[in-house]
Amino acid sequence: MKNKYLRGALGVLTVAMLGVGVVSATGVANGLSEEEKVAAQERQAAMRDAIETDNYAEWEALMIERIAEMEDSINEETFDELVERYENQEQFQAAVDELKESREWTFEEMEELKEEYEIGDGHTKMKNRYSNEDS
């Protein structure tokens, strides 16, 4: 019984680690098409199913596939893209902080900042997080 709980906990941890890997590699889903988002959700569901059904062969196949995808993205171009996204997000956050400190602002101004700093739709919760407007 104890072993079953341990395996379940390890399974959840594995799924969480894969999620972190996907998020890290994709810059919080910035720039993913709807098709890519659906594919990522399907992979996550397949991983969860393999763990829940104690299907090592399926889990192993999914992990090998994920490793191959990650290996394909280990290159200077991907690294440069990640650095650029990070820098844009840092500059965006500084601009948001400055705007918030200077005066009242609107959601439209936030949208303009998103566009200026090329912050993608992966930040859909931004309105709820930053908005000071009444909904």
List the helices and strands and how they pair.
Layout: H1 2-26, H2 34-52, H3 56-72, H4 76-102, H5 107-116, H6 126-130
Task: Describe the protein.
The chain has 135 residues and is mainly alpha-helical. It has two domains: 2-74, no CATH class; 77-130. Helices cover 76% and strands 0% of the residues. The protein contains six helices and no strands. It has helices spanning 2-26, 34-52, 56-72, 76-102, 107-116, 126-130. Helix 2 runs antiparallel to helix 3. Residues 24-28 and 122-135 have low confidence and may be disordered.
Could you spell the SSE succession in H and E letters?
HHHHHH
- Outline: elongated
Largest sheet: none
What amount of the residues lies in strands?
under 5%
N- and C-termini, Cα separation: 50 Å
Topology, number of strands: 0
Fraction of residues in H or I helices: over 70%
Number of domains: 2
- Radius of gyration using CA atoms only: 19 Å
What is the overall pLDDT average? 76
Task: From the structure above, extract its key features.
135 residues; mainly alpha; 6 helices; elongated
Q: What's this model, at a glance?
A:
By secondary structure, the protein is an all-alpha fold. It has six helices and no strands.
